[in-house]
Specification:
Elements: H1 8-64, H2 71-99, E1 107-110, H3 111-129, E2 132-136, E3 143-146, H4 148-165, E4 171-179, E5 182-189, H5 196-199, H6 217-227, E6 231-237, E7 241-249, H7 256-259
Parallel strand pairs: 2-4
Antiparallel strand pairs: 1-3, 4-5, 5-7, 6-7
Helix pairs in contact: 1-2, 3-4, 4-6
Length: 261
């Protein structure tokens, strides 16, 4: 049966076509707004994450040019420049890793020793803000197949986040243990905690519980851990603190000589 131009079915079809066109237009508008919001967030995050180290480098460089600067102050400003340049390098590595993840090399490594080195390097940051770094190392050797540099970035990121989330007088505890065929590493703080509705997305790119910043650290940490056949989980309670747990397959040969390399 031929449908005439004024038929009710024709009018209904036209209405559906109009609705479909408007729906497509609405979807495109939403996508455009989401892209704009994402670009705006990335731009704001870049400014936030880069401005502080760049400002510190600039200030320290200007102060180094003063003729009346004593030796201790000169060394302090030089250390500041080196530290902030290292921060910028890690930041650029994170951005590159989003586009093209670096391959992870695997070597037998002893967990307690590798973490102890990171903690020793970060104690100054904890002392500066009045947050104690405590350790509770399990009986070793605890050997895993890992990449010392890549895992060092994971440990630094977790400890840095914990320090930043913890008020003066609080503590961050780093623990290791053997649990069956796994080696566990936990980073636990007495800080502000993470709201329950934020927990499920904190390992995604550009997601952060901080007021500003790109939120790349946890996403990249998760990728590194999973590339080493490990897992990373989080537990948190607002006002009581947060606990991250890393689990890696243990090496049963416990080759201390190989791990020391």
């Amino acid at each position: 049966m031929e449908i005439l131009s004024h038929d009710e079915f024709f009018d209904l079809g036209q209405a559906f076509n109009t609705m479909a066109d408007k729906l497509v237009e609405l979807q495109e508008n939403v996508k455009r707004q989401e892209r704009q919001a994402m670009f705006g967030r990335i731009a704001a995050g870049l400014v936030h994450d880069l401005s502080h180290p760049i400002q510190n480098i600039g200030n320290s460089t200007r102060l180094l040019l003063r003729d009346d600067l004593d030796r201790d102050s000169r060394q302090m400003f030089q250390r500041t420049i080196e530290r902030e340049l290292e921060t910028l390098k890690h930041f650029m590595d994170d951005l590159r890793n989003i586009v093209k993840p670096k391959p992870i090399e695997r070597f037998a490594m002893e967990v307690n020793g590798s973490i102890a080195e990171i903690i020793e390097a970060m104690r100054g940051e904890g002392d500066r803000v009045g947050v104690a770094l405590e350790t509770n190392f399990g009986e070793g050797p605890l050997i895993i197949e890992g990449d010392r540099f890549a895992l060092g970035r994971v440990y630094r990121n977790l400890i840095t986040n914990a320090i930043q989330a913890t008020a003066q007088g609080g503590r961050v505890t780093i623990s290791t243990s053997r649990a069956g065929d796994r080696v566990e590493v936990t980073v636990e703080d007495t800080g502000s905690g993470i709201p329950a509705d934020k927990l499920s997305g904190i390992f995604e790119d550009f997601v952060t519980t901080k007021r500003r910043g790109l939120g790349l650290g946890l996403a990249i940490s998760k990728r590194i851990v999973e590339q080493l056949d490990g897992t990373i989980t989080v537990e948190s309670e607002v006002g009581r603190g947060t606990k991250f747990t890393l689990r890696f397959p243990a090496r049963d040969d416990r080759s201390e000589q190989a791990a020391a390399s």
